[in-house]
Design goal:
This protein has 202 residues and is α/β, with parallel strands linked by helices. It has helices spanning 18-28, 45-56, 69-79, 93-104, 117-130, 140-146, 161-168, 188-197; strands spanning 34-38, 60-63, 87-90, 112-115, 151-154, 175-180. The protein starts with 17 loop residues before the first helix and ends in a 5-residue tail after the last helix.
């Protein structure tokens, strides 16, 4: 689904490198909807994500690995010309429900929303095991549709692949970009799974 239009201008001091422009163009290509960017540490993943968000111009959700959303937020504010109120950091079911209630009330929402993958996974698990009665009446897909998310960025998708894969199944957005510096596995099962979900671009 198309997300709500937002402006995410990049500060003038930043100039993209050729490979970052290539990554942006590849990510914004209509098919497939989900893209994997294999980018090494130090190649500017955060900036590339900002390039994509700026070009798409829709509310963006970022799923950082572990508890690094604060660091992501700091880097984001160095790149985008936005205010602190334009960014929200959501961790825990109660905070997620408060944000969804704000959306239901028609109130203005942040342009960029960081959400802990564990928070989304907890909602998914409760929904799958007990239906809406266990998930506070929220279907997992509604997290994205109620918040009018157009772009989801998943950093270090390999770090907790099962969680990110489960979230992928409920991600009802226009575009999803997965990032990883090391999407490799010695396990044939995992290697085959990666190849099936993220086929190599010719």
């Amino acid at each position: 689904a198309k997300g709500e239009a937002v402006e995410l201008p990049i500060l003038d001091k930043w100039t993209p490198r050729d490979y970052q422009e290539d990554a942006k163009a590849y990510s914004l290509n209509l098919n497939p909807r989900c893209k994997l960017l294999g980018m090494d540490t130090g190649t500017g993943k955060t900036y590339t994500a900002c390039l994509i968000a700026n070009a798409l111009g829709e509310r963006t959700m970022i799923l950082p690995p572990g508890d690094v959303s604060e660091q992501w937020g700091i880097e984001l504010m160095k790149i985008l010309d936005i205010e602190e109120d334009d960014v929200a950091n959501i961790s825990g079911r109660n905070n997620l429900l408060k944000l969804l209630a704000k959306a239901d009330a028609g109130k203005e929402l942040p342009k960029v929303i960081f959400v802990s993958p564990r928070t989304l996974m907890g909602l998914i698990t409760d929904y799958e095991e007990g239906g809406l009665a266990r998930s506070n009446g929220i279907h997992p897909e509604e997290v994205f549709t109620k918040l009018k998310i157009g772009l989801t960025v998943v950093d270090e998708v390999h770090a907790d692949f099962f969680t990110n894969y489960k979230i992928m199944l409920y991600t009802a957005v226009r575009k999803t970009v997965y990032m990883s510096a090391t999407l490799l596995s010695l396990s044939k099962f995992m290697a085959d799974l990666y190849a099936g979900i993220f086929p190599k671009s010719e």
